[in-house]
Amino acid sequence: xxxxxxxxxxDILRNKIVIAYTIVLLALSLSVFNLEDNANKGLLSLLNxxxxxxxxxxxxxxxxxxxxxxxxxxxxxxxPLKRKTIWLSLFLGLxxxxxxxxxxxxxxxxxxxxxxxxxITMLVIGLMLTIIFVSIxxxxxxxxxxxxxxxxxSILLWLYFSILFDGLVLFFLFQFADYPLEKPMVAVSALxxxxxxxxxxxxxxxxxxxxxxxxxxxxxxxxSSLGITIAxxxxxxxxxxxxxxxxxxxxxxxx
Amino acid sequence: MIIASNVSKRFGKLKVLDDVSVTCNKGExxxxxxxxxxxxxxxxxxxxxxxVPDSGFITFNGKNILHDWEYRKHIGYMPQIxxxxxxxxxxxxxxxxxxxxxxxxxxxxxxxVQSFGLPALFSKRMRTLSGGTRQKVSASLAFLFNPDVLxxxxxxxxxxxxxxxxxxxxITKEKQKGKLVLITSHILSELxxxxxxxxYMQDGKLKFHKSLQDLQKDTGEEKLNKAIASIMxxxx
Lengths: 255, 236
Known about the structure:
The complex is a heterodimer of chains A (255) and B (236).
Chain A: H1 2-14, H2 17-35, H3 39-68, H4 70-77, H5 83-113, H6 117-142, H7 147-175, H8 182-189, H9 193-205, H10 212-223, H11 225-251
Helix pairs in contact in A: 1-5, 2-3, 2-5, 3-5, 3-6, 3-7, 3-9, 5-6, 5-11, 6-7, 6-9, 6-11, 8-10, 9-11, 10-11
Chain B: E1 2-11, E2 14-24, E3 29-33, H1 40-47, E4 55-60, E5 63-64, E6 75-78, H2 90-101, H3 111-115, H4 131-144, E7 149-153, H5 161-176, E8 180-184, E9 197-202, E10 205-211, H6 212-219, H7 224-234
Parallel strand pairs in B: 3-8, 3-9, 6-7, 7-8
Antiparallel strand pairs in B: 1-2, 1-4, 4-5, 9-10
Helix pairs in contact in B: 6-7
């Protein structure tokens, strides 16, 4: 397994997109921290980059990469290797290289300029989102044979998680404005890893007061150690479940 | 050695394999013959576990191959269209396969790598290769690990006469060592001096499995080419 991961990572490094991604992230985070005197303000600006760009790059790059390595996969499947090993190695290769890119690009500036609890939370959330979206990407690409369709599916999924979901939640809230929805909102937020990440970071930033009563409920729930544990578990499930599902599909796939 | 029992496979509405049963034993050289789209490649891919049959099962040395992977240690496979990572060079692909597949105590067989003159091309990227060179790489990889079973899908398609002759000699040599060789080919005249058994497939069904002598006796034809032609004409 280690050997295959090694080849996957070497291949990813060779096509330079990940290196460009690292440099862009690094430039963005350094400029954000140097523009603001207050590290917390810098973190707030970085928040949107982490929540929008990181999932987008992770999901689109991984999907395209899986399609482009179809030859590699075909070659390995006819060799004495478990399909599970091949698929997990591909996933780990992608997840590790994108996570390292994020760590160097955004993590190092965060540690240098804002190594508070908030900064570390953002770093961890960014890493988690990277892994989660790689996992969603491998699922999207194994369930679709056609490359264009698969990439389209990935972009739609990203659009759903980063924009459409919030719209739907707002619509839902306005329709049922007469009912006490503060508590169910906590559960709804678990349906979207990006939202969950945003809430966890915003709570650390102490701007939850701006979110009104819902913010208070969030603070109450996610501020407790039980809440943090549940939120982390949900994030881990978001990474593990799509991966397991994709593995099941890959095991039964005809090549 | 390899036994397929009642294997069926559909791709959508198309029935590609229809209740195929076949037994392959050590030391045999089996030609898998049939018109285009008769399911030859799908049968081969099922044996390799690349295609999962809808029903029926395949055993290798008495063990069901479903969910097994170790048996592929004993198989060298040469695909019809070899697909390799575009941005790797020939040398890197061969090194990678050695690295991934190498087992202790197995002597590697680099005969074909040498006789095809591949070391001179080691730095060439796979994307720039011609179909014939690609076939040479596929063939070299199939023989590299000295497997007990060789599965060759259209091995001589795209090879020039010299390379094709080298490959045929190599196949004969391996056959004499008592290995099982499974070949599909359209150019039947090439198989004349190699084959001991003939499996004929049509529309996903296995029409017959006979030894070459029986086939020659039944049809009264000496050449494989003519024997098969007379059968294809007899059963339209």
